[in-house]
Amino acid sequence: MDARMCNLFSSLLAVATVAFALPATADQLTAGELLGFCSASDSGSNTVCRFFVLGVVEGVQSADGTTMKGKEFVEGTKTIMCLPDNLPASTMVAVVRAFIDGVTKHYPDDAKLPAVSAVLGAMAQRYPCR
């Protein structure tokens, strides 16, 4: 790993650490609540889960590597997560569900952390940029 990639990885790790260290605010969906939606048997809860995961993934992918040149956004190199083309939403949900389930079994208090951070952590771990 070259020095640039090492610095980038260190920065990403620091951001992820801070994001996971901050508790969710009262109006913010927690990782535990998201896991509940994703694990429920009713279609309404599953829809909430799927659209939340897709929203986080699309938001991060849109902003990741994007810079401003003058008054235009310019797409750059992705650094946070690099998903395969046409990755099904069902796969994204399964990745997030397994990640939150695994983390909260070992660290139950992490269920109180923001769901956005959990989705980001799950996808970045499963689909890192290389």
Structure overview:
It contains five helices and two strands; from the N terminus they run H-H-H-E-E-H-H. With 130 residues, it is mostly helical. It has a single domain, classed as 10k-s Protein, Hypothetical Protein A, Chain A. A two-stranded antiparallel ribbon has the order 1-2. A hairpin with a 2-residue loop joins strand 1 and strand 2 (72-74).
Quick structural gist:
The protein has 130 residues and is mainly alpha-helical. The protein has one domain (3-21, 29-126): 10k-s Protein, Hypothetical Protein A, Chain A (Orthogonal Bundle), CATH 1.10.890.40.
Question: What topology emerges from the helices and strands here?
Answer:
Blueprint: H1 3-21, H2 31-39, H3 43-63, E1 67-69, E2 72-74, H4 89-106, H5 115-126
Antiparallel strand pairs: 1-2
Please state how the strands of the largest beta sheet are arranged side by side: 1-2
**Structural class by secondary-structure content:** mainly alpha
User: What is the rounded Rg?
Assistant: 15 Å
* Alpha-carbon distance between the two ends: 10 Å
